[in-house]
Amino acid sequence: MRLLLLVLVLLSAPAWCATSAAGAPTEQQVEVTARLPGARDEKTLAQLLSARDAFERHHALAPDAALAFRLYARLDAKDLDRLRLFLVDGRQRTEVPLDDHQRFTLSPDWTRALADRGALLQTNLPDGAVAWKVDVRSPGVPAGQGRLGDLRLECEADTFHGNLQRGLRTPVSAILDASDELCRLDDAEVWFAERPIFGVALVSGMRRRVLPYSYLHGSTGTMTLAGLFDWPHALRDRAYFLPLEDRSWPDDTQVMFDAMDDPQPEPAP
Asked: Rg of the chain's alpha carbons, rounded to an integer?
């Protein structure tokens, strides 16, 4: 009899366990997946500090000017409406304020030691969405105009020294940069006017030169390679080069723009 009772208990155990398990709350496993963000447009702090070093070496080109950096929309002008910039130091992100022209300056806290740790300046936009430029403006330069010495200084601080400009890097250019001769080439740097332009003129006293169209809109470049540089799409209509090889123009030369939205003269009757 005892053996029979033991057998009955053993036979009923699985059913009792199953009933208890069915009555108990079940544990669910939830897997959460998210797409990793793509690469963000960024520059290292080391690049910006190198640009500052070059700016200080060539400061005589614009003695009263201060150094700033500016971001332009390369692909879509509407990107500027949502542009944000951050200093990234390891896992710490600090937003960098931008002015109305998407410019910022180097903070005194951005030291070489911070750069050596790999700190970088990163936007919230995908890689290739913005163009990073050195911005130099002497006091008293009217809005919508430029000063040749300021632009020469931008080239010295930007091209290769800061390495901010998107473009091809050749061994010959590296040699010229090391000898401070790179910014004596007409195509060393591309600049952007505030508005789309028809033309650019240099004015120094009574001397005036209207630049040929080959200096405008990246017109002499190989268009199949335009995506490697900073002037496609949103910037092509305001891009221009300068005759940097002609050193006869003084640093105080005015750079004048014929903007597309300026009032145009009435045609002759």
From this structure: 30
